[in-house]
Design brief:
Length: 191
Amino acid sequence: MKKIMMLLLVITTALTQTIYAQGEPEDTSPKGFDKSKLFFGGNFGLGFGSNTSSINVSPQAGYRFNTHFAAGAGVNFNYYSYKTFWGNGLETKTRSGYTGLNVFGRVYPIPYILIQAQPEVNYSWGSIKYSDSHPTEKLKGQFIPSLLIGGGAAIPTGGNGALLLMLQYDVLQESRSPYGNKPFFTMGYNF
């Protein structure tokens, strides 16, 4: 999967360079900072079940430099709680949280299709509570780097808004990464 994601990134970069090499119409927009190119959005998620719960709040702010490039930054907050039943009446309740910062870069090789790279660092903490006489085990707090690579669609919703549907993968695969070891789907909104 890592090789596929890296190949996709290389191909996109090559295509983008080819498009620019062929030339674009001259940009007549005003030079300097243009606040109309700012966008805000991110992800928000809630999940509740009989043995699990999760909360994700990840706002982001970015700037659209032109029709092909955008970049920005954001903050992350994720909380997970789940019960595991081991048999013989033993169960554990694991709680973990992540909070951190990210930056992202997006390439739009064609309108409404995007490829994104998002390095981030999250601080992880948590605990495991046992149903028997074991004491609650604290998980050692630590900083965990991640590098999310992915792509998807930015579906216009009117005005400057867009619904983002993306498939992403953490290529660093740290053991306590909040993203696990499989590709994952996200849905967000930019306004």
